[in-house]
Amino acid sequence: xxxRERIGFVTLxxxxxxxxxxxxxHFFAARTVDAANAPRMITARKFMLxxxxxxxxxxxxxxxxxxxxxxxxxxxxxxxxxxxxxxDGAPALGIYGFDGKPRIEVGLTRSVAxxxxxxxxSTPQAxxxxxxxxxxxIGLMDKAGNPRASIIIATDGTPTLRLGDEHRGRIGMxxxxxxxxxxxxxxxxxxxxxxxxxxxxxxxxxxxxDASGNPANSVP
Length: 220
What we know:
Shape: elongated
Radius of gyration: 26 Å
Number of strands: 16
Strand content: over 45%
Order of helices and strands: HHHEEEEEEEEEEEEEEEE
């Protein structure tokens, strides 16, 4: 599901801008209504906020997919910020650039809290997430959006660092809960080809693996 589907924000169209200008008089007239005569509840499918020129600056509605959304536009009509909650209860906050492209997303999906940062082309470049069990992680992507580096802290405190090419992870480094560090080198097929480990007694070992991922040589 795309970001816009999760948040439910739609691009401002000329028709929407025209409607915003047409109803602007009603919004301005509402300011002169006496508080005693003001309705206690208003029911509608969509609310639009316009500025003094009749330009749409905000929208509050529910999409056909059941997403309750609040969108805020700048003076040029570009979407700059939005808040939405899906029918499944997943909330999300989006921050957009001058061109209306997403730059920051904060959300909660299946109890996983996440932050995603995008470049000027709306390609994800960095992520931060925390699972409900306490596992946390940071991911970094290249210009194409491919994961290239990540660090994960497991629930037992074990850290794992992974570095990869544009296809898969190629280097892995971790530290076990009892203090044993390890380094693994991965082939282009995803199989381990070499590893370096250090035991709790201080003894180290270098292990080489064959093309099938089976240990072939070890030192010592």
